[in-house]
Amino acid sequence: MSQKVTVFGSAAVDLMARASHLPTAGETVCGSFFTQGPGGKGFNQCAAAHRAGADVAMVTKLGRDSLSHVTLGVMEELGMRRDYIRFHDTASTGTALIMVDEQTSQNQIVVVPGACATFTDDDLAAAAQRIRDSAYLLLQLEINQDANEKAAALAKQAGVKVIINTAPYRPMSDEFLQGVYLVTPNEVEAQEATGIEVTDLDSASRAARVFYEKGVENVLITLGARGVFVSAHGREAILPAFRVQAVDTTGAGDAFNGGLLTALAEGQDLWQAARFASAVAALSVQKLGAALSMPSREEIDQFLRLHP
Ligand code: ADP
Question: Of 5, 8, 64, 179, whose Cβ has the fewest other Cβ atoms within 10 Å?
Answer without folding.
Answer: 64
